[in-house]
Each structure stands twice: as structure tokens, then as C-alpha cells.
Amino acid sequence: MPDRGDYPGAEAFVPPDATSREDLAEAARGCHGCDLYEQATQTVFGRGPTPARIMLVGEQPGDVEDKRGEPFVGPAGRLLDRALAEAGIDPASAYRTNAVKHFRWKPAPRGGTRRIGVTPDVRHINACRPWLIAELKVVKPDVIVTLGAIAGRSLLGPSFRATKARGTLIEYRPPDIPGMTALLVPTIHPSAVLRSPDRDAAYAGFVDDLRVAARVLASPDAAKPSP
């Protein structure tokens, strides 16, 4: 087993001259920036229009996403599509990605083929962050919606708490991208809705948070993407 110090982080794999999502996705296939690539089926890179006015950032791929190689194509993704439409956002207009691009999992405790997602560590979030920054440069969003704590911490730092900040508007100026400004709306991950004991209430709150993003997109004063 390689030592943690043997993993260079995604920065070693991000093409410095990438100008498209396709360039980044192709390079990300070979990313060994952290140890998660060892157990994942494949890199799950972001998908959607580029540029895009809205960018959705999740936490990590799930079991279905890991097998198919696309983000948000499992049960949480279907719920997300429904919530976006209900909030007044065309699901097809959104660029979707995750803060961590490889699936971290453990076997089900009673055996079988089921794989249970495990929350990525801080080292995984930090190692993968250069891919997210590279995507921001290509997508140039007006609005960023962070879905869950890991997504928020990747962009806003370790002190971020999704439950306290959800549904608010945060002016986001990434230090890695001089001159870029976007409006960021934190919310919970759609999988949290599926796990909630009161799914109806959790879903309603999730849609309300997405409506904050929808109002920004509808406003003529919305932040404009950087050139």
C-alpha cells in the first residue's frame, strides 16, 4: 500500500491549458491524486453545458454513478431533477459535478455485492479540489449550488456548515480564479432527503433552497460570469 505522501493530488493531473470540459474529463480518467482511485470503478467527472449559468456541486459519486461514469444518475439524481423543475430551474441547463470524483465505499456488513458509500476524508477533498477549480474556469457559472457539507467545505473551507448556511446567498470569489464572482447557495444533498424520516418536509425544504437559486437566475442583477 503506498504511503499517503505518494499521492500528489489532482493538481499533478489537471492540464494547465485545458479549455473545455472534454479536455478535463479525458485527463481526469488517469487521475491518481489520492488513494480513492484504487477501489473506484472509474473517475466520475462533471457533465452538462459549458458555459452554464448554474453549476451544481455534490459530494462524491454513488454506487450507480461509479458504475455508469456519470454524476447524479441514481435515485438522488432523479430526486434532484424533480426538485429543480419544481423550483423553476430547467434540469438540462445545469452543469453537475462532485467535489470528489471517485467513489469511496465499503462492503455491506452482511456480505453480498452491495457497496455502501463512505464519507471522503479532508485529504480526499483537498486532493480533488483542483478538478473543481478547473471546472469552474470552464463552466463560468452565475450561480453555484453546493449540495451537502463536503461540497460546501471544498469551496468555502473546513468551517462551513451546510445546516446553518443552507438557503442563503453567499458572494463567492474563488481565490484560485482572480476576477471571478458568483453567487453561491448552499443546501443539503438530495440523498439526505431520501434518508430523512420525514421525506416530504425534507423535500419541501430542499425545493425552497433551490428556489433561492432560481430567483437569482431570473434576476437581471444576477452575477455575470467572468470572461
- Tell me, briefly, the overall form: globular
**CATH hierarchy class name:** Alpha Beta
Q: Spans with pLDDT under 50 lasting ≥5 residues?
A: none
- Domain unit count: 1
User: Kindly, what is the distance between the CA atoms of the first and last residues, rounded to a whole number of angstroms?
Assistant: 44 Å
CATH topology: Uracil-DNA Glycosylase, subunit E
**Mean pLDDT reading:** 93
The helix tally amounts to 8
Which structural class is indicated by helix and strand composition? alpha/beta
CATH fourth-tier homologous superfamily: Uracil-DNA glycosylase-like domain
Q: Which CATH-level-2 architecture?
A: 3-Layer(aba) Sandwich
Strand order of the largest sheet: 2-1-5-7-6
Structural overview:
The protein has 227 residues and is of the alpha/beta class. It has a single domain, classed as Uracil-DNA Glycosylase, subunit E. Helices cover 37% and strands 13% of the residues. The protein contains 8 helices and 7 strands; from the N terminus they run αβααβββαβααββαα. A hairpin with a 7-residue loop joins strand 3 and strand 4 (115-117). The longest helix is centred in the C-terminal third of the chain and has 20 residues, at 199-218. The termini are far apart. The mean pLDDT is 93. Keywords: 4Fe-4S, DNA damage, DNA repair, Hydrolase, Iron, Iron-sulfur, Metal-binding. Belongs to the uracil-DNA glycosylase (UDG) superfamily. Type 4 (UDGa) family. One of its GO terms (biological process) is DNA repair. It comes from Planosporangium flavigriseum. Residues 45-211 form the Uracil-DNA glycosylase-like domain.
